[in-house]
Automatic annotation (TrEMBL):
Organism: Paludifilum halophilum
GO molecular function: ATP binding; metal ion binding
Name of protein: ATP-grasp domain-containing protein
Alphabetical UniProt keywords: ATP-binding, Nucleotide-binding
Record PROSITE patterns: ATP_GRASP
Statement: the UniProt record of this protein carries the keyword S-adenosyl-L-methionine: no
Amino acid sequence: MGYARVVIQIISERYFPPQANMIMSQSLIKRLHLPQHPVWVTFGSATDTAFIVPIQNRTPLIRLSTRLASRLKISGQKTLNAHYDPPSRRIHFGPLLGILMNRDVEGNETQPFGAMSRFLEECVQCCSTKGVYLTVFSPEQIDLSSKSLRGWIYENKKWVLSDAPLPDVIYNRITSRRLENRTELQRKLDTLRHTYRIPVFNETFLNKQQVHDMLVKDEGMRRMLPETHAYQAARLKPMLERYRTIYLKPTNGSLGQGIIRITRQEGHLICQYSEAAGTVTRIFSSLKDTLRRLSRRLAGSRYIIQQGLDLVTVDGRPVDFRVLVQKDGKGKWSVTSAVGRIANSQHIVSNLARGGTIRKAGEVLAEIRTFTYKPSLDKLRQTALAIAHTFERLAQGHFAELGIDLVLDRRGRLWLIELNSKPSKTDDTITTPTLTARPSVTRLIDYTLHISGWSPHIRFHRRKMTPKSNRSGRKTR
């Protein structure tokens, strides 16, 4: 069994001897422990027979005939990992990572994926250094009947459409709950997971109520969770009697959209919510008037009602902490980043989409004053890791990345506000002007190598399939 990092180059058939379709150096053949007879070659779900011609040099270059490259659906010159598995007599190229996205993004010629373009280009950069082939595709581009898809690859500094086999790993970055819940997409994902055994991670959005009901069962998590219930009009009065401030949040909301804050003050109820221009404030003299207003605003949507907390502020502005936890190259949860998000003075939420700002979590913690105890940055990180481990133990589905939102009250107590399975790639990230892959991208690609079996710590286990000769001498499956 041998591994090597190789450069794949596609050239015309006329440069190959009869029947041959792959050229590589003797030194690379030796490094991969390749036999002299034909072998299978696999890329993603595509498989064909390789007839190898050795040459006398020491380069890591592998030349494929255009016909073989077409059958494997490899496009352009790529740096990939190569591995030979003797029991199955098979060379594997890869891994092939597919990022699943919806197409309704506002892109242009220079940024075809809109605000996600920079993140995806960082993925391309990191994949190139680690020998991973990347394709970006949408649900309608999956063709299960041909075990292939038509996605976007990055070539010559631009995105181009290209055919690809089904990937080794799929990273779900669908940003629309409505699209993700479509029957056709769920059918495709189910087939990819169970029929083709392709890992699909971060496979679904999270529901605030379901996450709370799951975590509250754990004794260690229970103390960190604000009192939370599915919203019913009858719950408003008792919650306001217990807490001076409460929040109403869409069960399936994101980016701070739809959040309503209600504060009890001097016999009145102050109702606040964010709009593009800032915070809208309505003052009601009775619970009845408040409920009447809420019934119109909440119509058609599911909400939770949640205990408000006496939180610390920075310059009088609300602050929370987004801790990004990801699985690493060994499949272990690790903290990738921690930032403090400070709300815009005109909004009640801290999301960048609502005009908030971000800073390093340690800097924000240093400015915070509490009445008693203040947790350290390490405490923040360890708390997030504990949450990720508990969530994984209790939840169904495959998750390798979580955005964990924590807040700090004036007594120095940490609270868990939200778990996000589709953490933003455009907000909540402190980036540099240069196009250097951010740590979260590196960890994403490392996990791809791990889960696809390409990590050096993992051995391949494939069913043996021996090529057979036909009358023309060509090997067939």
